Each structure stands twice: as structure tokens, then as C-alpha cells.
Amino acid sequence: MDWTSSQLRSLVELTRRGTITAVAHALGYTPGGVSQQIAALEKATGMELLCRVGRRVELTDAGMTLARHAERILATEAEAVEALERSRNEISGVLHVGLFATAAAEILPPALQRVRTTHPGLAVHSRDMDVDEVYSAVASGGVDLALGLDYPDLPIPRDPALRVTRLYRERFSLAVPAGSMAGRTQIALAETQDLRWILPTADSYYGRAVRTACRRAGVEPVVQHEVTDTAATLALVEAGIGVSTVTDLMLRLRASRFDVVRLRETIERHIVVVFRATAEHRPTVAALIDVLRAVAVTRSGGPKARPDA
């Protein structure tokens, strides 16, 4: 039958996510684009693959049958791509990379410069996305690999179909309005009870990780402003609105005029690279991961990272 990998991937994702909108978000399409993919599959098979139930869609028996076979087809395709890459005498091809804003600003540029020098035949296409979405984007095949974040206080759930390799770790400090803690070089979370916080929402991994660390110290942070964008958060701290956790990488996003106080407790985040287990031995994927590790060593000044999967 005449179908494409993109159409099959859209169908498989529907079994995981349940809505056209969620599939579109994961794969980087518009909802209309996903609907067109499914419609094309129905035309190719001559069968109804979806039925609508309220606001959701459900796969018909024919849709479920095709989705099961589609997973095997896509896995075989991944093996074929790896075999073809291995047959070449150089690292060449196209990789689609997902990344969050801080990584796009601080990690991607030096990585692309290294790729241009060491692997001129490798084309890297990047896609900016919400950091909490990178894992699902890799799992769905929306991107080949992605830069993400993991938190020891709230680890990202591990998918056996994915591999997660830590590039380096960052320790959080506290960004405070200039002069508000004159003479202080360190503060314990227990001393922040009366401060006004600027944090991402509690349903984000970052927001939950910081709240978890505070609660472990016996403090419920008073979050006055829920902000996801790092640059906006730093601007609010600079304006004297409140305090927030920061890392060295976050501080490099914009020149800011506020004070940074070391936290007595160790609160960390890990910069990680995520890729599918089936792509672990693809030459292009391995080459880009090596480049990212080299950039991480330069950024952190530390030794090479180890796998975390």
C-alpha cells in the first residue's frame, strides 16, 4: 500500500496521546497536518482508522491493527537508516534535534561550529521546544535526539525505548535583588520563608523540583509570579520583584544587575542528551553526541559525562 513513514508515525502517536492536538505538538506539525496524514492513510487502506468520541479520537480495530504493524515498520526503517549510514565512508546525513531555549542559546552554537569543522557532511536541523516535551518528541520520532534537563529531586520518568546521557551538572544558586542581602554569600532554604519567589508553574518539572527541595527543608515557597521564560525571570529579579533559583548557564542568557547568593543545600539540574535506543549505534547520532560531550566539557570544565539511562 502507498503510505509514508510520517503517516504511520502519526497513527502510532495517536495510540499514545489520544488527541490530534497532542500528536501535532509532539511531532511538530499542525493539527490540520496530522488530520491530513491520517486521512491519507485511510485513503491508502480503504478503511476507517479513527472514530470520534467527544473531544477525543479513538482508533478503530483496523486502526489498532495498522498501528501495531506500523511500530514494526518504523523500527525496521530505523535499522535500514543505520545500515545505510554505516555503509558510507564519512559521517553524513541529516539529523533533527530538539532543544530548549537555554540550550539553543548556549550549547547549540558551539556544537554547530564543531560539526561544521569535524563532520561537514552532517546537516543538523534544530527545533526549539518546551523542555518538558523533549522526551516525548524523541520517543515519537519527531526529532532524532534532543537536549533536555533532569533533576535529582524529581527525575524524569525513564522510558525503556529511550537512552539518556548526562552531559554535565549545574548547581542552583539564589538570584536576589541587588543589595537585598548585602554581605551574604550563602543562604539556607529554611531562611527563604518570607521571600517572594518567581518560579515556573508547579506542573513543570523545574517548578516541582524546586518546590520539592524547599519542602524538604521545611519551607513552602511563596510563589508570587509563575514564569517559564528564564530571561523574563531574571528581569523580574533585577526589578526587585522577587527571588529565583539560577545556574551559571541561565545567568549567561542576559546581562543582569542583581546579586547571586549560594544555596547551602545542594540543588542540581543535569543537562542531558536524549535519543532512541534504536538509534544508539547510528554513526550520525553517535558523532553528534560526541560533539555535545566535547562542548559540555568546555562549558563545565569537568571530565566527560557518563550515561545516566
Reading the helices and strands in chain order gives HHHEEHEHHEHEEEEEHEHEHEEH
Question: How many domain modules?
Answer: 3
Q: Which CATH top level class of the largest domain fits?
A: Alpha Beta
Give the CATH topology of the largest domain. D-Maltodextrin-Binding Protein, domain 2
Estimated share of beta-strand residues:
15-25%
Q: Ends: how far apart?
A: 38 Å
Low-pLDDT residue intervals, each spanning 5 or more residues: 303-307
Instruction: Say which CATH homologous superfamily of the largest domain is assigned.
Output: Periplasmic binding protein-like II
Write down the Rg: 22 Å
Shape: globular
How many individual helices?
A: 11
Helical fraction equals: 40-55%
By helix and strand content, what is the structural category? alpha/beta
Oligomeric state of the chains present here: single chain
Strand order of the biggest β-sheet: 4-3-5-13-6
Number of strands: 13
The CATH architecture of the largest domain is 3-Layer(aba) Sandwich
Q: How confident overall, as mean pLDDT?
A: 88
Major beta sheet, specifics?
5 strands, mixed
